[in-house]
Structures are given as structure tokens and as C-alpha cells.
């Protein structure tokens, strides 16, 4: 290959790297209303675009690696190596995970999965290469600040003016972008303003921006962290102590937060979140503590998963299976309910515990090392702002999570602060061996193939489910005619569960005269909507029986039976009632066997049978509940009710019902006052 050809490859590779990185900063455009299509438009299309942008950069890195080992050297940098290893470890653990595609794509609503971490590594390596060239450095900085200003402005005006053309509807997420841009702004400011006025003006500006994000975690961080770091660095003659305290502070942050979560989730075992609901200072933290507790409960249920994890995107399943039923009140009004029930949570709000649940302890350690590398691996002149940034990332990861549009800022943060030891100028470095060069280039091309495939799947699924309209199917047709028009390529049916529950809530609400939600239709529209629900119900049933399925779809299918039969019984004909009742007991029995923590899902079935004089059909489920946990109030209550049939067993039945009252049956089903008084006379 001639010198001129080498130059062409070098330039083409650099341009591909730059194109991918620059495009990644503007993937947020697909999150704007009317542009991106998806059930979750602020994340799905952005994730797909991000995969494709990173794919372009991966091709650039592969081209550059053909003629030099510079790219391979970049992958030795911990800010590139750690995310790459998180993805690689997750691939090695795939045999232990249920849904391979879900692990690659991660949660649909956040996108954090195997491809996501490959994207972090590739975009970071590309940004580091580009940062060495002045024109590209200017381009990256301009793109990062422009992207931030647009996102921040649109989200801010959405909050103030109520428009919906915004990449995010919550300004909280902008706080992470501020952290990512902090070192560049810090250094630029310090060159123009000197002395105490620099510290004062920077502190005020930083906290002013944080305040506008309304992110309480980062607001508190902004008030405390700069003062702490500036204070320890000002210790006269104690430079080493100041540096050690700085490292200790960054490393201790996630440990402190997880310890606090463990304390809060165990301090009031009977009251749970409700013990903190009136304590505004700690209410949000306590809610996050119980979200984290569900991941830890899932891991404790299968201890081997502390090593293997459950795979990426599984938090929604943890939510479905491990709700803390020992204190949650399932009868509360939604406004006073724990947000783990009322909100559609898809992340534990702690990236360390979330990574532990996804890829085991090795993934969690790599994530910790990754965030620690920001201050440890920072260039000498960037060390001070890198400490503030690194601590901010640790605080963020301990109490928040990342959305796709924040990922390019993570790569920018690494490129703008990291030192690049052992990297000569690109054209002067030759590969060590042909085998080494081909192996590394092949690995990059394999990563690129995964990225482009992931991008295509994300876009196709988003497009297929955007505005999805199920067919009108009569209940009597479903046994022989149920076309599978839904397809998510084996991701577990999460989109289907969302479509199903959203439509279910809307239709049930039409029949509720006390509902305060705005409605454009009345009860007369319910029969037509039921025909749509028949199709969704049938498709979900087929999906659950024939494919690996998320727990979220399984629980949605069960909830659908109960809400329709209890809430819209009078709007159904006999065929429709039979459709939703048939197979209920068998499906519920499987759920209770696999998810013994969520026995509350049995309540609708037991109540329906009781209301319609079908108590005999409940006996097997009641016996299963009682056998699995003789102290659970639901099993005690309904077994006690069954014993009231004969005078001989009635006293035992009454004792069981009294015990059920003491154990909290009223958190699962309403109990009339006269029955309570009869059982517990004063």
C-alpha cells in the first residue's frame, strides 16, 4: 500500500470517527414530538440513532486500526477499556440470561445494554483521537455545547410554557450534561478570571445552572462538592493529604449511598416507604432505597446471580416479581401510593446496583473503576475539575441513571479530561504484527455489526408499535383466529405489555363514573374497545405460551383478566366473559409458583369467584397460597372463609380471619366495617 493510500485511509477513518461522534450529539432530534416514532419516543428512536452513529465511528476506528496500533492503544485507557469490558463480560454471561436480545438492547426506555456499553467505548475512543486535532477539538466542543443549549432550552421552556417539542420533559437530566461539560468550562473560565473571583463566580454560575435543572441530588452536590475539594486542596503543606481525601471522597460516595439505602429499606420493615412519606427531606431517597431493594431481593432469590446477573433491561421484571408486599398497601389511592406502584419505573435509580443485577459483581466493579478513572486518569492540568466531575458522576450513578441522549456527553467528558499515555501521532505508529492488527480490526467490525443490527431492530420495533392498532375480534373467534400482528423480534413482549395496559386503563376508566381523567368517549364505546382488547389479550396469551417472555407481560395479562371481569362485567357478553376467565386459574397458579412474593395478583380471582358464587373454584389457589406461606393474610382470609361452611370448622375459620386482619389483609382487599367489628369486637 502506497503512502498516499495510507493517507486516504487515515483521513477517511478520522472523518468517519468524527461524523459518528458529531451525529451522536444530535440524535436527540428524534426525541422531538412529531419526528421520532415509538411508544417511548424520547428514548427508543434516540437509542436506535445512537447505535447507528456509533457504528459509523466503529468503521472509522476499524479503518484506522488497519494501518496502526494507535486505536488498540486507546482501548488500554480505562475510560475506554472499562465500558468495553462491561459489554464483553455481559456477552460471556448471556448463557445464564433468559432474553438474549433484551440484554443486547437493554431497557427500551433507557437503552442501557450490551450495545449501549460498546457505544460508550467506541465514541470515547473516537473522541479521544479527534481531541488531538485542533479543528476536530473545536468541532466536538461546539457540538457538545450547542447540543446542551438546545436540549436545556427546549426542556426548560417545556416546563415553563407547556409545549411538548422537547427531547426530555424533565430538566433533571440536563444536570448530567452540565457535569460532562464542567472541566472544559472550568479551564476556559480560569484562564480569563483569576483569584478568589474565579472561585466565587464559577461556584455561583455552576449552582445557578444546577438549580434550574431542579435535580435535588445534583443541587445538593453543587453546593457541597466544590467547597469540599477547594478546601482540601487549600491545605498548606498537605498536598498529598488533600489528594488522598479527594480520591477517598469520590470512591466513598456510592458506598455511602448504598449503605444508606440498605438502612432505610430495613429500618421500618412494617411501615416501609409509608414511614417516610411525610418526611420530605428523605422521602425521595427512601423511595429509591426500596427500588434498589427489589434488585437485591431478586439477587438473593437466586444467589448465583450475584455472579451472573439477570441480564440488561430486567429491572421491570424485578418490579413485577419483587414488589415489597410486606408493607405496600394495594388498596391506596394512586396519589398517596408508593411511586414504585404508581410510576412506570424501568431503572433502580442506582447504576451500581443496576449493573450488579444485570451483569453481576464483575460488571459492578468495572462500572466503579470506570467512574473512578475520570479523576485518576485526568491530565495534570485538568485534575481539579476532573475531581469535581468524577464525584458528580459518582453521585449521579448512585441516585440516577442515564438516558441515551446523555451518552455522547459521557464520551466528551472522557476525551476532554483524559491523558493519553503512549500515543504517538497517528501516522508515525506502525502495527506490531499482522495478526494483532487483523484480530483487533476484526473485533471492531464485529462490534460494528452488532451496533447496526441493534439500530435496525430498535427502529423497526419502534415503527411497528407506534400507533399500533389491534384488529377488532369477537371473543368467540379467538380460539381459531388470532393473527400475531405484533412482533418485537423476541425481546420479551415489553411493548405489548405497555400497549395492553395503556388501553386497558383507558377502557376501564370509561366505565368508572367517578374518574377525574379527561375522556373523549363515554361508556357506550366500551364494547368496541373490548374487541380490540380481545385481540391484544389473545396475542399476549400466544406470546406467553410460545416465546420467552418478560414478567411484565405475564403480570399484565393476569391483571387484564381481573380488571375487565371485575370492572366491566356488565359490558361483556358470555363469550367475552368466558374468554377472560378460561385458563385464569392455571395461569395464576404458574405465576404464584414462579413469583411467590406477588400473591396480591391472586386477589381479583378470589374476589371474582366470591362475588359470583364460585368459591369452590378458588380452593386450589387458596390451598396453594396457604401452603406457600401459612402466615400470609390473603391465604389465611380465604381459607378461613372456606372453613365457615360447616359449624365444626367455623371456629378455626374465624381464627384464621382474625389472624389475617392482624397480618394486614386490608392492604390487599377492602374489609367491611361490620365484618371487622364481628371478628375483632372491642
Task: Describe the 3D structure.
This protein is mainly α and 682 residues long. The protein is 66% helix and 0% strand. The chain is built from 29 helices and no strands. α1 packs antiparallel against α2, α2 (44-67) runs antiparallel to α19 (434-465) and α27 runs antiparallel to α28. The longest helix has 32 residues, at 434-465. The radius of gyration is 28 Å and the shape is globular. It starts with a helix and ends with a helix. Mean pLDDT is 90; it is low at 424-431.
Major pleated sheet: none
What share of the residues lie within helices? 55-70%
Based on DSSP secondary structure assignment, what is the total number of beta strands? 0
Dominant shape: globular
Beta-strand portion reads under 5%
First and last CA, distance:
96 Å
Q: Find the structural class using helix and strand composition.
A: mainly alpha
Sequence of secondary-structure elements? HHHHHHHHHHHHHHHHHHHHHHHHHHHHH
Number of helices, counting only DSSP H or I runs of 4 residues or more: 29
- What value does the average pLDDT take? 90
Low-confidence stretches: 424-431
Estimated radius of gyration: 28 Å
Essential attributes:
mainly alpha; 29 helices
Concise summary:
This protein has helices at 3-24, 44-67, 70-74, 78-92, 100-105, 114-131, 134-161, 174-192, 195-213, 216-233, 239-267, 280-301, 305-308, 315-321, 339-342, 351-376, 383-399, 407-417, 434-465, 494-510, 526-546, 551-567, 574-581, 584-594, 603-611, 619-628, 633-643, 650-663, 673-679.
Amino acid at each position: 500500500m502506497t503512502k498516499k493510500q495510507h493517507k486516504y485511509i487515515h483521513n477517511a477513518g478520522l472523518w468517519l470517527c468524527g461524523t459518528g461522534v458529531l451525529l451522536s450529539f444530535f440524535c436527540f432530534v428524534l426525541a422531538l414530538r412529531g419526528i421520532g416514532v415509538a411508544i417511548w419516543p424520547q428514548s427508543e428512536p434516540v437509542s436506535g440513532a445512537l447505535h447507528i452513529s456509533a457504528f459509523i465511528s466503529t468503521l472509522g476506528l476499524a479503518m484506522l486500526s488497519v494501518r496502526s496500533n494507535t486505536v488498540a492503544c486507546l482501548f488500554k485507557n480505562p475510560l475506554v477499556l472499562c465500558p468495553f469490558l462491561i459489554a464483553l463480560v455481559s456477552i460471556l454471561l448471556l448463557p445464564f440470561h433468559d432474553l438474549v436480545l433484551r440484554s443486547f438492547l437493554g431497557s427500551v426506555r433507557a437503552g442501557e445494554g450490551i450495545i449501549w456499553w460498546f457505544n460508550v467505548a467506541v465514541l470515547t475512543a473516537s473522541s479521544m483521537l479527534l481531541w488531538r486535532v485542533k479543528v476536530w477539538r473545536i468541532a466536538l466542543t461546539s457540538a457538545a455545547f450547542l447540543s446542551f443549549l438546545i436540549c436545556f432550552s427546549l426542556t426548560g421552556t417545556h416546563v415553563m410554557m407547556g409545549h411538548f417539542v422537547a427531547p426530555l420533559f424533565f430538566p433533571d437530566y440536563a444536570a448530567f450534561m452540565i457535569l460532562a461539560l464542567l472541566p472544559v468550562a472550568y479551564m476556559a473560565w480560569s484562564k480569563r478570571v483569576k483569584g478568589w473571583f474565579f472561585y466565587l463566580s464559577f461556584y455561583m454560575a455552576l449552582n445557578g445552572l444546577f438549580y434550574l435543572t431542579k435535580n435535588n441530588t445534583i443541587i445538593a452536590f453543587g453546593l457541597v462538592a466544590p467547597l469540599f475539594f477547594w478546601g482540601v486542596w487549600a491545605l498548606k503543606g498537605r498536598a498529598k493529604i488533600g489528594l488522598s481525601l479527594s480520591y477517598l471522597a469520590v470512591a466513598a460516595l456510592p458506598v455511602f449511598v448504598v449503605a444508606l439505602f440498605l438502612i432505610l429499606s430495613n429500618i421500618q420493615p412494617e411501615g416501609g416507604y409509608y414511614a417516610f412519606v411525610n418526611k420530605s427531606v428523605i422521602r425521595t431517597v427512601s423511595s429509591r432505597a426500596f427500588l434498589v431493594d427489589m434488585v437485591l431481593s431478586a439477587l438473593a432469590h437466586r444467589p448465583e446471580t450475584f455472579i451472573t446477573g439477570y441480564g440488561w433491561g430486567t429491572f421491570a421484571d424485578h418490579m413485577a416479581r419483587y414488589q415489597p408486599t410486606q408493607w405496600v398497601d394495594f388498596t391506596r389511592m394512586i396519589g398517596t401510593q408508593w411511586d414504585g406502584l404508581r410510576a412506570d419505573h424501568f431503572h433502580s435509580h442506582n447504576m451500581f446496583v443496576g449493573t450488579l443485577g444485570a451483569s453481576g459483581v464483575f460488571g459492578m466493579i468495572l462500572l466503579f473503576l470506570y467512574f473512578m478513572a475520570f479523576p485518576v486518569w485526568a491530565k495534570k492540568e485538568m485534575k481539579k475539575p476532573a475531581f469535581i466531575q468524577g464525584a458528580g458522576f459518582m453521585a449521579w450513578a448512585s441516585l440516577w441513571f442515564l438516558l441515551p441522549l446523555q451518552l455522547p456527553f459521557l464520551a466528551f467528558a472522557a476525551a476532554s479530561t483524559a491523558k493519553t499515555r503512549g500515543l504517538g501521532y497517528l501516522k508515525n505508529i506502525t502495527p506490531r504484527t499482522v495478526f494483532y492488527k487483523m484480530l483487533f480490526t476484526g473485533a471492531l467490525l464485529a462490534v460494528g455489526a452488532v451496533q447496526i443490527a441493534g439500530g435496525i431492530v430498535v427502529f423497526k420495533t419502534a415503527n411497528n408499535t407506534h400507533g399500533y392498532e389491534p384488529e377488532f375480534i369477537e371473543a368467540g373467534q379467538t380460539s381459531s383466529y388470532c393473527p400475531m400482528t405484533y412482533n418485537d423480534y423476541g425481546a420479551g413482549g415489553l411493548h405489548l405489555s405497555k400497549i395492553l395496559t395503556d388501553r386497558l386503563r383507558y377502557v376501564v376508566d370509561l366505565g368508572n363514573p367517578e374518574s377525574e381523567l379527561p375522556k373523549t368517549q363515554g361508556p357506550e364505546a366500551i364494547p368496541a374497545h373490548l374487541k380490540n382488547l380481545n385481540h391484544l389479550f389473545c396475542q399476549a396469551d400466544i406470546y406467553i405460551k410460545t416465546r420467552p417472555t418478560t414478567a411484565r407481560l405475564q403480570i399484565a395479562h393476569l391483571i387484564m383478566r381481573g380488571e375487565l371481569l371485575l370492572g366491566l362485567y356488565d359490558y361483556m357478553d358470555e363469550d367475552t366473559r368466558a374468554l377472560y376467565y378460561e385458563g385464569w386459574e392455571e395461569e395464576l397458579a404458574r405465576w404464584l409458583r414462579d413469583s411467590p412474593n406477588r400473591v396480591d395478583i391472586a386477589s381479583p380471582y378470589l374476589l371474582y369467584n366470591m362475588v359470583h358464587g364460585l368459591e369452590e373454584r378458588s380452593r386450589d389457589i387458596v390451598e396453594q397460597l396457604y401452603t406457600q406461606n401459612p402466615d400470609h393474610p390473603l391465604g389465611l382470609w380465604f381459607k378461613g372463609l372456606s372453613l365457615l361452611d360447616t359449624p365444626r370448622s367455623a371456629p378455626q375459620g374465624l381464627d384464621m380471619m382474625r389472624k389475617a386482619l392482624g397480618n394486614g389483609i386490608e392492604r390487599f382487599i377492602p374489609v367491611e366495617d361490620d365484618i371487622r367489628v364481628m371478628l375483632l369486637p372491642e
